[in-house]
Every structure is written in structure tokens, then in C-alpha cells.
């Protein structure tokens, strides 16, 4: 028999041995899928968590959610590369979650959902079968590099000529280091560099620092720092696990841009994760920034799933607008074909 329950106090989750084990790094091999990640979002980013959990004996399915007021969202933010249900292969468990959430929310919105693992399709199917109206749209892109057994030198030979020329001309002017542990001095340098970079203001420095320190203790952190004339000019934060290198943060001082320190440091980190960590995949997160195309080789879509309870009057204005938009798109497509 399938049982569904909800957890808004993540501290209480730690007393649930089965759930804690399922959300640990022994079972989940990406940072965005673990209880520690959700705890960090709640503690440092002000999110209100709600873990929806379905169980059938030893099988588990977890949908990490946030919010209240009848509209629930994915328990994620700008630091999350992708969001997916943490489920066994049983579609019945996802169906039970979708059915149970009908009593908890009038609307559920999940963004950055992948479909190379069928997460988007499984969620869409489960919610439709449970009586929800589902709108699925592409919302973002994800750039990746399948290493395919290549060495770093083989990988580099396939990069655009302009990038290879930049690295050849600038590498001798910048000194790089890659650390596999958290270092206070290097982290302070990273924060200083970020403050003088082209990047927007950091969303939650406390979250990022706590995450980096925890990944350092676990041996998964790859912290890169570049110096020019003894001064730190670029820094990057990557993590490595389960055969994947995740590129979380990168920044360089605007004043050092003529030295291309970001590119030189990226090259050092690619060399490290390919030749030393021997990863199978490098994941550059979300966003279609042009520079990512120089380093990556494949683009994957990320989807937004908007689920509505059709019987909720508060959903009717939104559903009406969606219907009008779909009608206009259909008419435009028909006119174009005609």
C-alpha cells in the first residue's frame, strides 16, 4: 500500500532513517538531489520547504517543494542546475504524489526539469492522470561536454581556433592552481574577485560558502584560483562526483580581462577533471551564454511544468489566458501555412 506524507520541518526528516538514507550522498550523486542541499536552501535562502514523500515498502519517491498559499514551487533557486523527482522507477509512486497534492495546492510549478532521464515526461503523465491540467514549455538550456574517453589534449584540439589561440598566448601570463579542499584564503579571494567582476550581486554568499565547505570535506570540491603578478584575478568553483564535473561559479576581475584569466583558469580545471578525475561528463549548468559553446558540445533543454487544479476558481483567469494564447498561436501557425 502506498503512503503519502509531507515534511515542512527538515530537521524532523533526520529522524526518518529510510528517507534520510534515500536523500544522502550514498544514493543521490548530484548536489541538487540531497537533503543537505534542501537544508541549505531553507537556512540561507529563505525558502519554505515541503517534501512530498510517497512510500511503498522499500520504494520511495520524493518531490521537494516550497511555498504555501496554494501555489507550490520546486524547492530550488538560481544555484540549482536542474530539478527532478527523486523517485524509483515506479510511476505509481509519482501518481500517488500527484493525487495527494490535489488536497495541498491548487497549482504546482516546477522549473528546470530535464527530460533526458524522462523526468519531465513522467511528471507530466503522473499529474495529468491525477486530474491536473498541465502546461509544459521549454524554459532554459543546459550545456554539457561528454568526454568520451578523450584526454585533455585531445579535447583541446577540438576547441575553436580562437579559444586555442587565446590559451596559447595568455597561459604564460597567468599562474593557476586547482585545490581539492576548501581554503579560507582562496575563498576570500574568490569573493573579492566576484565583487569586481561582471557578475550580478551574489544571491546568497552564505549558502555558497557553506556548500563549498561541505563539498571540500567530502572531497568533491575543485576550487580554482588564478594569479597575475602575485594578485588573484580569477576564481572558479567546480564539484566532481558520480563521473560528472559540475561548474558552479566562475568570475574574473574586469580589470584583468586583457589577460583572459577566466579562460586560462577554465582550461586548468578542464585538464584536472578530464585527466586526473577522469570524469565522463562536464555540466555547465543553465543559461545560453555564448562562451559556453566554446567549451561544451551538446545543448539540452530544460522544461517548466505548470500544473493546475481545474476546479479551483483562482486558476480560471490563468487558464483562460493560456487558452487565448494557445488559440492565437494556432491561428498564427495556420495563417503562416496558408
TrEMBL record:
InterPro entries: Acyl_CoA_acyltransferase, BioF2-like_GNAT_dom. Pfam families: Acetyltransf_6. Residues 162-293 form the BioF2-like acetyltransferase domain. Gene3D superfamilies: 3.40.630.30. It comes from the Bacteria. This is BioF2-like acetyltransferase domain-containing protein.
Amino acid at each position: 500500500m502506498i503512503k503519502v506524507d509531507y515534511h515542512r520541518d527538515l530537521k524532523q526528516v533526520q529522524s526518518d532513517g529510510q528517507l534520510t538514507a534515500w536523500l544522502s550522498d550514498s544514493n543521490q550523486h548530484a548536489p541538487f538531489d540531497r537533503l543537505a542541499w534542501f537544508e541549505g536552501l531553507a537556512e540561507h535562502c529563505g525558502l519554505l520547504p515541503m517534501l512530498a514523500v510517497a512510500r511503498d515498502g522499500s520504494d520511495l519517491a520524493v518531490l521537494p517543494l516550497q511555498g504555501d498559499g496554494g501555489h507550490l514551487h520546486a524547492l530550488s533557486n538560481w544555484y540549482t542546475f536542474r530539478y527532478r523527482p527523486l523517485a524509483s522507477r515506479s510511476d505509481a509512486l509519482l501518481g500517488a504524489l500527484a493525487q495527494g497534492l490535489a488536497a495541498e495546492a491548487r497549482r504546482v510549478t516546477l522549473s528546470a526539469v530535464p527530460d533526458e532521464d524522462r523526468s519531465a515526461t513522467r511528471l507530466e503523465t503522473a499529474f495529468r492522470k491525477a486530474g491536473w491540467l498541465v502546461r509544459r514549455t521549454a524554459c532554459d538550456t543546459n550545456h554539457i561536454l561528454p568526454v568520451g574517453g578523450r584526454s585533455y589534449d585531445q579535447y583541446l584540439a577540438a576547441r575553436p581556433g580562437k579559444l586555442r589561440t587565446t590559451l596559447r598566448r595568455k597561459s604564460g601570463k597567468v599562474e593557476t592552481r586547482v585545490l581539492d579542499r576548501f581554503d579560507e584564503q582562496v575563498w576570500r579571494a574568490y569573493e573579492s574577485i566576484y565583487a569586481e567582476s561582471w557578475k550580478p550581486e551574489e544571491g546568497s554568499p552564505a549558502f555558497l560558502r557553506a556548500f563549498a565547505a561541505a563539498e571540500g570535506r567530502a572531497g568533491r570540491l575543485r576550487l580554482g584560483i588564478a594569479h597575475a603578478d602575485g594578485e588573484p584575478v580569477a576564481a572558479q568553483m567546480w564539484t566532481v562526483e558520480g563521473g560528472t564535473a559540475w561548474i558552479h561559479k566562475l568570475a574574473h576581475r574586469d580589470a584583468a580581462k586583457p589577460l583572459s584569466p577566466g579562460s586560462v583558469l577554465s582550461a586548468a580545471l578542464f585538464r584536472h577533471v578530464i585527466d586526473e578525475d577522469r570524469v565522463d561528463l562536464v555540466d555547465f549548468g543553465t543559461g545560453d551564454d555564448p562562451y559556453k559553446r566554446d567549451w561544451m558540445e551538446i545543448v539540452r533543454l530544460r522544461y517548466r511544468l505548470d500544473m493546475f487544479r481545474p476546479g479551483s476558481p483562482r486558476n480560471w483567469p490563468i487558464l483562460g489566458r493560456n487558452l487565448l494564447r494557445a488559440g492565437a498561436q494556432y491561428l498564427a501557425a495556420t495563417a503562416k501555412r496558408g
